[in-house]
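Can you give me the bound-state structure? Components:
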Amino acid sequence: MAAALASRFSRGRSLIGSLSNAFSGLMNSSNGIMNGNILSQQQQRTFIQMGTTLKVVDNSGAKEVKCIQSLKANKKGARLGDIIVGSVKEAIPKGKVKKGKVVYGVVVRAAMQKGRVDGSQVKFDDNAIVVVGIKEKKKKKPEENKKNKVEFNQPTGTRVFGPVPHEMRNKKQLKILALAQHMV
Amino acid sequence: MATSFNRLPPQALHMITRNPTQSSKKLGFSTFLSCAPSVDSSFSRLSLNHSGSKFGLSLDTRVRKEFIVRAEDNAEAEPEEAAVDGIVDAEGNVEEVVEVGEAKSMRKPRIKLGDVMGILNKKAIEVSEKVRPVPEIRTGDIVEIKLEVPENRRRLSIYKGIVMSRQNAGIHTTIRIRRIIAGIGVEIVFPIYSPNIKEIKVMSHRKVRRARLYYLRDKLPRLSTFK
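Here's the bound-state model for the whole set.
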C-alpha cells in the first residue's frame, strides 16, 4: 500500500527522451546518480487551476480554453468531473462559441489520476473539457439571478470526441455519456 | 476503499478464525473477549489502525484476539492459558487441549509483530485466489481484463492494454495498463485481487527491458495501440 502510494507521486514524463544522443551518452557514464535524477524528473500531475489550458472535445465551436476558475470548493483546483469557468482562446470561425467568450465546462479528461471506489485509478494523456454553458455578460437584477442553483447538465455541442470516464455518471452528466464514443 | 472488500472480510474471517482451532465451528467471540482483557495492554503496540490494512477495525480486533490466543499457546502466562483451555474445553473439544499441549512441547515459532501484515496479506490473497485465480502477470504482457462496474451493470467492461508496471503490495498488488482509446492514451491502475475483476487473461507478451514502461508515454501512439 505504501509502495503504491509512493509510486503515485513519482509518475509523469521522463525528460530523458528529450535529450540529444550525445548528451545521453554522457548521462550513461554517470550511472551513480541515475536513479535520483529519474525520480526528480518525473512530473507530478496536479489539479486544473487558473491558467491551465484545456482542449475542448465537442463541436460547440471552441478549440482551446484557458481555465479562469474552478467551481469546486476545493481551493487547490478542479479534477476529473468538476466544472470550471474558462475563457475561449481559440475557436473555429463559424461556431456557437466564439473566441473571447467565457464558458462553463466539465472536465472529461484529466492528466491527474482519479481514484475510484474499487481501488482502481484512471488517468488520461491530456486535459479536456466539454462546454456546458456560456456565461452571459448582461447585468441581472438580484432577485432574478438564480445562477447559484444552475445545474450544468446540457452540453452546448452535439458531439463529444474521445473517451469519457464513468465519473460522468456520478456527476450527473448523462447527456455527455450518451454522446460519448467510448466509455472508460 | 473499505467498501471494495465488503465481500471479502466475512470470507477471510471464516478462514482466519478456523485456522487456530480447526475443530470448533462456532467460536463465540465472547470467549475471546473474556479471556483477553488483561493481555490488551501488552499488545497495545499492535495498533488497530494499520495504514495498510483494508479490512477495517473489526477484522483487526478479531485477528488480534487470534494472535493473543496463539501467543498464549506458547506459555505466556499460566493463569491465562488455563483460562483459555478451560473456556475452550467448555466448548466441548478435548482434542483442543491435547493440541495445545503438543504445541507447547514442540516449541512452535513465535509470530513476531513485524510478520503480522505479511501473514494477513497472504491470507487475504489466498481467499481471493480461491474465488478467482490470478495468472502470472509481468511488465510487458498484453492483457485483457474483464471488469464488473457497478454503474454499468448491463455487461462487463473490457480493458485491454500493455502492463506498464506491477506494484507488489500484498492484497493491493496493482498493475497499470496503458492503451490508446479513441486517439487518447489512457492509463488505468487495477488492483488484481479485486473482487470486481471477473477475468484477467494474458493475450501476448512484448519483450521489454524495463520494469516500468513509463517511456511509452513519450513514444508514438502506435506503440500503445492494441486491437
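A couple of observations. The longest helix of chain A spans residues 21-29. Residues 1-20, 22-30 of chain A have pLDDT under 50 and may be disordered.
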